[in-house]
Specification:
The chain is an alpha/beta fold. It contains 14 helices and 28 strands.
Length: 576
C-alpha cells in the first residue's frame, strides 16, 4: 500500500511539472503557491524560473544569461559595460556593470522597454544620451540633521543604512537648500478664530520647545502648561470639545470642496507617521519650517512658501494625539491651499478602538470625559471620511500612506474616489485598502526569490487582504502612470533614520515620530524642490531628507554614510 501511494504521488508530481512546463511555454505565468491575491493572476514568475537561462520575452530581446549589455548608471549618468547575471522573470533581469571608480555594481532592470529603457545590447555608433526612462527625480546625497540636545543643525551624507541597492539615483553636485527663514504668523481672515489661534500658539510652542534646556521623549514631556488647553485657549473640557467639533466641521467642509487626489507643486515637504508625538512635530516644524510663516529658499534663489503634506497616521499610541490632530486640522483650515492631508490606516475608528488604552478613542475619553470624548471622536472621524488617499507632486511623485498594493491601477482610481468613505467601504476595494496598508519588499532584506512580484502580508494574519509588492511592481506602476517615485510612510525601523530609499530610487519611506515605541529611530520629513535648469537636462526634482535626531543617538552612523551603497545589518520592523 505504501509503494502504491508513493507511485500515485510521483505520478501527481509529474502531472504538475508537465502543467507548469506547458504554462511556461505558453507565457501563462502564475504566482507559484497559495490563493491568488484579490483574484488577480500576475505576469510574474513561477519559482522554477528563478534559475532559467532563457525566458521568452527576455530572450526575444536578446537578453540571455551571460550576455554582454550596456547599463545606464544613475550615479555616473552614463552607459556602462556590463553583463546579464541572472534572469528573474519574463521581463526582469539582474545585470552587473562597472560603475564609478571601477566598482562593480548590480542592478535589477526591466527589459520590456526596448531602446527607451536602462539596458541595451551594445552596438556601434549608438547614442550616448540618457534613456527616456532615466530617473527625473533624484535623491539628495546629503541630509539635514537637527540635534535638539545641542540645538545645532548639521549636514551629513545620507545614511548607508537607509539606502538599498548599488546604483541609486543620488544627486552628488546638486542639493536642496536647508535654509529656513523665520517669519511672523499671518492670520487668515477666512479661517476661524479657533484655527488661527491654534496655529499661532503652536508656533510659539515650537520656539519654546526648541529652546528647552534638555531634550526628552515625547511621552515624558511635561510642560508647565496643558498643551491641549493652551492650543484652544480654554480652561475646561467643555470649551475644548466645543471648539474641537467646530474646527473639525470647518476642515470637513474644505476637504469636501477639494479634489479626491491632491495635486501640488514644488517646493513641498512631506511628513510621515506622527502617532501623537506632538513635541516631535513641533521640533520638525520649528527646524524645517511652518507653511507661509517660514519660507524655504528654492534652488533658483527666490523665496517661496512651500506646500506641506501630512501623510496620515496622526493618532494612536502617542501621548499627545489630540494635540497632533488639532494642529493638523488647524493648519489645513488656515492654509487650505498649502497644506494637504492624506488618510492613513489609523484614521479609522475600528483601528482606534482596537488599540484599546493607547488608542485615539481611549485618549478622547480620558482627557475630555466619556460623553464629550465620544462626541469629539465621532465628529473627527466624520471629517476623516473626506480625506483623500494620495497627493501628486508635480506629476512626478505620488505620496500615499501605505503603498501601491498590486499596482494594477492608475491615478484615476484616486481621482474618482468617492467621499465620504468609511473604512468598511474602503475595505471592499482591495486596491484602495492596500493603498493604506501594503508594504514594499526590501531590496536586500528579503529572500532573493521573493524580492519580485506580490506576496501575502503578515499584517492581517495572512488572510490575503494585505499584500507586499516588489521592485518590478513599483517600476511597472510608475511607468504606466508616468511617475518617477512613490513616497510612503507606514513603517518604522529600530534605530532607523526616519527615511529610506529603495526599489532603485523609485520608492522612499518617511516616518516623523522619533523614538517610536522605544525603537531609537530618528524622525524625518522629505523636502522636494525643483532641480537646477541645465541645457539638455529635463525638468527634474530633488528630494532631501531632513531629520530630528533620536535621543538614543541613531544619527551617529550618518557620518560614515557614503552614496550608492547597500544596506547594512538586518533591521527590525514595527507594524504601524
Amino acid at each position: 500500500q505504501q509503494q502504491h501511494q508513493h507511485q500515485q504521488q510521483q505520478q501527481h508530481y509529474q502531472r504538475q511539472n508537465h502543467q507548469l512546463n506547458l504554462q511556461h511555454h505558453q507565457h501563462q505565468y502564475q504566482w507559484p503557491s497559495g490563493p491568488s491575491i484579490a483574484g488577480n493572476q500576475w505576469d510574474a514568475y513561477p519559482q522554477q524560473e528563478a534559475t532559467c537561462q532563457r525566458l521568452p520575452q527576455a530572450a526575444d530581446a536578446g537578453f540571455e544569461l551571460g550576455a554582454s549589455v550596456e547599463v545606464w548608471s544613475n550615479s555616473s549618468q552614463q552607459w556602462c559595460q556590463g553583463r546579464i547575471e541572472r534572469i528573474l522573470s519574463a521581463n526582469m533581469v539582474t545585470a552587473s556593470f562597472v560603475g564609478l571608480n571601477g566598482v562593480v555594481m548590480h542592478k535589477q532592470i526591466s527589459v520590456s522597454h526596448g531602446m527607451r529603457g536602462e539596458i541595451r545590447l551594445p552596438q556601434r555608433n549608438q547614442s550616448c544620451e540618457r534613456p527616456m526612462l532615466a530617473m527625473e527625480v533624484v535623491v539628495d546625497s546629503e541630509c539635514d540633521v537637527f540635534f535638539p540636545i545641542v540645538k545645532q543643525k548639521k549636514v551629513f551624507k545620507i545614511s548607508r543604512r537607509a539606502c538599498h541597492g548599488d546604483d541609486l539615483p543620488l544627486s552628488i553636485e546638486e542639493h536642496c537648500s536647508s535654509a529656513v527663514n523665520s517669519g511672523r504668523f499671518q492670520k487668515n481672515p477666512r479661517a476661524s478664530e479657533v484655527a488661527n489661534t491654534i496655529v499661532q500658539t503652536a508656533m510659539l510652542m515650537a520656539t519654546s520647545v526648541a529652546e528647552e534646556f534638555s531634550d526628552c521623549y515625547d511621552r515624558e514631556w511635561q510642560p508647565q502648561y496643558n498643551p491641549l488647553a493652551q492650543l484652544f485657549n480654554a480652561t475646561d473640557s467643555q470649551t475644548v470639545a466645543t471648539k474641537f467639533v467646530e474646527l473639525s466641521q470647518e476642515v470637513g467642509r474644505i476637504l469636501a470642496a477639494q479634489p479626491s487626489l491632491n495635486e501640488v507643486s514644488v517646493p513641498a515637504k512631506i511628513y510621515g507617521d506622527i502617532h501623537g508625538h506632538f513635541r516631535d512635530m513641533l521640533l520638525l516644524l520649528h527646524s524645517y519650517g511652518f507653511p507661509n510663516a517660514s519660507a524655504s529658499r528654492s534652488m533658483f534663489g527666490s523665496n517661496k512658501t512651500f506646500n506641506l503634506i501630512f501623510n496620515g497616521d496622526w493618532c494612536d499610541r502617542g501621548a499627545h494625539q489630540l494635540e497632533v490632530v488639532a494642529l493638523v486640522l488647524a493648519l489645513k483650515a488656515v492654509y487650505p491651499n498649502q497644506v494637504f492631508l492624506n488618510r492613513g490606516n489609523h484614521e479609522d475608528p475600528h483601528q482606534n478602538q482596537h488599540m484599546k488604552s493607547v488608542g485615539f478613542l481611549a485618549q478622547c475619553r480620558h482627557r475630555l470625559g466619556e460623553a464629550l470624548g465620544n462626541n469629539v471622536f465621532h465628529q473627527i472621524h466624520r471629517t476623516f471620511e473626506f480625506l483623500p488617499l494620495g497627493t501628486l507632486i508635480d506629476n512626478m511623485i505620488l505620496v500615499v500612506h501605505g503603498g501601491i498594493g498590486d499596482g494594477l491601477w492608475d491615478l484615476d482610481l484616486l481621482r474618482h474616489y468617492r467621499r465620504p468613505a468609511s473604512m468598511d467601504e474602503i475595505q471592499q476595494d482591495p486596491a484602495l485598502y492596500n493603498i493604506l496598508w501594503s508594504d514594499p519588499i526590501p531590496d536586500k532584506d528579503a529572500d532573493p526569490d521573493e524580492i519580485f512580484g506580490v506576496h501575502d502580508s503578515p499584517r492581517d494574519g495572512h488572510q490575503h487582504m494585505i499584500i507586499t509588492f516588489g521592485k518590478d511592481c513599483t517600476d511597472a506602476f510608475c511607468e504606466r502612470n508616468n511617475l518617477e517615485m512613490i513616497v510612503r510612510s507606514h513603517q518604522a525601523f529600530r534605530r532607523g533614520c526616519g527615511y529610506e530609499v529603495m526599489h532603485g530610487g523609485r520608492c522612499m519611506r518617511v516616518f516623523s515620530a522619533r523614538d517610536y515605541e522605544s525603537m531609537g529611530n530618528d524622525g524625518a520629513v522629505l523636502s522636494v524642490e525643483a532641480g537646477k535648469r541645465k541645457a539638455g537636462m529635463p525638468h527634474h526634482l530633488v528630494v532631501r531628507p531632513q531629520v530630528v535626531s533620536s535621543l538614543q543617538g541613531s544619527s551617529e552612523g550618518l557620518q560614515d554614510a557614503v552614496p550608492a551603497v547597500g544596506v547594512g545589518a538586518q533591521r527590525q520592523r514595527r507594524v504601524c
